[in-house]
Amino acid sequence: RHRMEFEEFVPEFNQWLARDKTTAFLVGIRSDESLNRYLAIKRRTKKCAWTPPGAHKPLPWSTRDKQRDNAVTFFPIYDWKFEDLWRYTGENGHAYNRLYDHMLRAGVPYSQMRICQPYGDDQRKGLDLFHKLEPETWFRAVKRVQGANYAARYCRQRFLGYRGGLGLPPTFDTWRQYSQ
Predict the structure, then answer these.
(1) What is the DSSP letter of 145?
(2) Positions of the chain with pLDDT lower than 50, given as ranges
(3) Cα 116-11-5 angle, rounded to 5 deg
(4) What are the tens digits of pLDDT across the range 104-121?
(5) Cα dist from 4 to 1, 37, 150, whole Å
(6) Running DSSP on this structure, what letter comes out for residue 19?
(7) Structural contact between residues 75 and 27, judged by C-beta atoms closer than 8 angstroms
(8) pLDDT above 90 covers what percent of the chain?
């Protein structure tokens, strides 16, 4: 449906893609990154672990919707730590997105390194790094997305929802003046 949140869209899309056949979906989340990610795997209220045909025990790193169980999601690296992921990548010479190198050089803490769309609520607070990390993409975004430069300039201000911000934009003296 129109304006569907990402978290709502993914299970619906998976179900649509699976249709009438049991279909596996691999998701590369790690539960040590957040409580929500941990609960995506461990919570058993709406979802439950999948039991392979002929097996006696369900796979703890899988989920399926009880109502529509033909879309099964697997989280094969949910118990990996940050170091495990990068050790595996380095030891096996796997390709990775070089934006992580740029983020490291820009001083982004490991726990905050994410590559995704830049305009979500969480992503918005780091929008000011976008031009440093990907200047060509940033230039195209500013030309295409009205308010992108404004959002980057003030993304760490309280009036745009940043909790640690400084308050009003520098051109205003009061909230009344800002709102008018």
Answers:
(1) S
(2) 165
(3) 55
(4) 998 888 877 877 776 666
(5) 6, 20, 26
(6) T
(7) yes
(8) 14
